[in-house]
Design brief:
The structure is a single chain. The chain is an alpha/beta fold. It has two domains: about 240 residues, Vaccinia Virus protein VP39 (Rossmann fold), CATH 3.40.50; about 45 residues. The chain has 13 helices and ten strands. α3 packs parallel to α4. The radius of gyration is 28 Å and the shape is elongated. The N and C termini lie far apart (about 80 Å). The chain binds S-adenosylmethionine. S-adenosylmethionine (SAM) binds next to α4 and β3. S-adenosylmethionine binds next to α4 and β3.
């Protein structure tokens, strides 16, 4: 290997963001009720704010709103940008972890920011994106974090991104949270959950989407049992990004955790047909077919395990009943002294 080649490998090919004091102060000036419901750490909020303040986008998209905390950060960052508008999409009308509240409810605390906001709830991105239209120059994608999740979300919006857009994913290293220190659990339900093997979707996307990668500067955290790596990252797309669809489609052959219901799938495929080459439509058909078979197989495996367990339980009950009736039989009682002698003899 020549010296020149060695030199090029020593370059850092990522942009690292160090939020500046003036940017953080801009965020700190905001009434802090959004922080109380935030699903991001302070460091992640600052990263998002810095990217927005430095790039001054005009057409912003958010997928995954929850209480609306990230919507507030985005709206605040564009409040002085003339003509800027945020379009926020969430599949759920009610807040996903508290059905008494509406998705995005915290934005009501900031009426002065709401004039630049359009809210779309109750559907997936492909059901709203044509209404929102193209030339999106900033997107925050923060939905389920397991496959196919954000992979499909991204494919739905890719045709609508401007050539040099910034796409930010949250929870890009969620699989490293608390693991290997503690068993992982879902913070909302408290149920134990194996994030380390399936919460990988946004990490995969950061690696697969063509463009310049933007990460949190201090990306290796202290060894404190929280998250090992920066958990938010961005990609600056280019005129090449839309020519690299296979890298993303290819991720869809990995194991899925949830499936798209058949009735949604039909309209999703009709939508994608308008924007993607027939090769990819056939590829997607094959993906759905494969994943359906995987889900059916897993279901049958679970059924089998359930039946095996039931059979074992029945056998144990049958044997217990036989032992009980044997012990209650006359011959068992008559031979009791013999068993006692045998026991004493063995001592
Ligand atoms: C992690 S929360 C978003 C948190 C929010 N970005 C914040 O930082 O405050 C995920 C949200 O995504 C929504 N969601 C899940 N899958 C979705 C999808 N495919 N399209 C749109 N919204 C989705 C859920 O209803 C939930 O409100």
């Amino acid at each position: 290997m020549g010296v020149m080649e060695k030199m090029s490998m020593s370059n850092i090919d990522v942009e690292m963001i160090v939020p500046q004091d003036v940017e953080n102060e801009y965020l700190d000036d905001l009434n802090d009720s959004y922080e109380t419901v935030s699903e991001m750490t302070e460091e992640e909020r600052q990263f998002l704010n810095s990217l927005l303040r430095r790039n001054k986008p005009k057409k912003l998209l958010e997928i995954g709103i929850a209480s609306g905390s990230s919507s507030v950060i985005m709206l605040n960052a564009i409040k002085d940008i003339e003509g800027a508008m945020l379009y926020s999409i969430d599949r759920s009308v009610e807040l996903y972890h508290d059905k008494q509240k509406a998705t995005g409810y915290i934005v009501d605390n900031y009426p002065e920011l709401k004039t630049k906001w359009k809210l779309y709830v109750g559907g997936l991105s492909f059901e709203f994106i044509e209404d929102i239209g193209g030339e999106i120059d900033f997107a925050l994608i923060d939905t389920v974090h397991f496959n196919p999740g954000e992979i499909l979300d991204f494919l739905m919006i890719l045709p609508f991104l401007s050539e040099a857009a910034l796409v930010v994913f949250h929870d890009t290293n969620l699989h490293t949270i608390r693991y290997p220190y503690f068993p992982q659990e879902n913070p909302l339900s408290g149920r134990s959950i194996d994030l380390s093997s399936y919460c990988i979707t946004n990490n995969l996307l950061i690696s697969s989407i063509h463009g310049e990668k933007i990460i949190v500067n201090d990306f290796i955290k202290n060894d404190n049992g929280k998250i090992f790596f920066g958990n938010i990252a961005g990609i600056r797309t280019s005129n090449e990004t839309k020519n690299h669809v296979f890298e993303i489609m290819n991720l869809l052959t990995l194991k899925w955790k949830s499936n798209i219901p058949l009735e949604k799938r039909k309209s999703l495929m009709a939508f994608l047909k308008k924007y993607y080459n027939n090769f990819y439509i056939e590829y997607l058909d094959k993906v759905f077919n494969y994943q359906d078979k995987c889900f059916a197989f897993e279901k049958s495996q679970k059924e089998k395990e359930k039946n095996n367990l039931l059979e074992c339980k029945n056998s144990v009950e049958l044997l217990s009943a036989e032992i009980k009736s044997l012990k209650e039989s006359k011959s068992w009682k008559i031979t009791a002294p013999l068993r006692l002698v045998k026991k004493l003899w063995k001592r």
